[in-house]
Amino acid sequence: MSRIGKHPVPVPAGVTVQVTGQTVTAKGKLGQLSLNLIDEIEAKLEGGNVVVLPRTETVRARQNWATARTNVANLVTGVDKGFTRNLEITGVGYKAAVAGSELVLNLGFSHDIRYPIPAGITMKCDKPTSISISGADKQQVGQIAAEIRSYRPPEPYKGKGVKYDNETIIRKEGKKK
């Protein structure tokens, strides 16, 4: 029995969930998201909860049971509260700003990096050294944060670069005389 998969996903007030065949659709105040489940997994609505169960006792069904349940929970949480990822920029002259529908990054290159903001995603720069990425789709928010971080990942000697707000950079000692 899966420890995660056996727990039902509660549906909060203001969110409607539909299960049609292998497709789970959630609609809430932040939009609408849908998920296609594999054939070995089934989802049912039971009394305000979404229950995810394996159809068969195959290895693939047991492997994907908890993953499917977590993806459904992320769907429901995303349309209700949304997800946020924060990035911090460290380095002299490194900064970010939102200009219209683009994120403009100055990361020490000879040119500015212009990252187009996709639909369904909001970006804020409260300070020139912090970026906040928000949206309903957890995978998309994380992917965008990883792409922005990849432009200038933090280096271990001075710590310069773009890092997640909860990331710890292990610093190295420089040259000794």
TrEMBL record:
Q: SUPFAM superfamilies, per this entry?
A: Ribosomal protein L6
InterPro entries recorded for this chain? Ribosomal_uL6-like, Ribosomal_uL6-like_a/b-dom_sf, Ribosomal_uL6_a/b-dom, Ribosomal_uL6_bac-type, Ribosomal_uL6_CS
One Pfam family here: Ribosomal_L6
Keyword check for Transit peptide, yes or no. Answer: no
Q: Which cellular components does GO assign to this protein?
A: cytosolic large ribosomal subunit
Keywords assigned? Ribonucleoprotein, Ribosomal protein, RNA-binding, rRNA-binding
Q: Which GO terms describe its biological process?
A: cytoplasmic translation
Question: Does the record's keyword annotation contain ATP-binding?
Answer: no
| Listed GO MF terms | rRNA binding; structural constituent of ribosome
Q: Which PANTHER family match?
A: 60S/50S RIBOSOMAL PROTEIN L6/L9, LARGE RIBOSOMAL SUBUNIT PROTEIN UL6M
Q: Which family does it belong to?
A: Belongs to the universal ribosomal protein uL6 family.
User: Subunit notes for this chain?
Assistant: Part of the 50S ribosomal subunit.
What this protein is reported to do is described as:
This protein binds to the 23S rRNA, and is important in its secondary structure. It is located near the subunit interface in the base of the L7/L12 stalk, and near the tRNA binding site of the peptidyltransferase center.
Q: Which NCBIfam families match?
A: L6_bact (TIGR03654)
Recorded protein name is Large ribosomal subunit protein uL6
The gene from which this protein is expressed is rplF
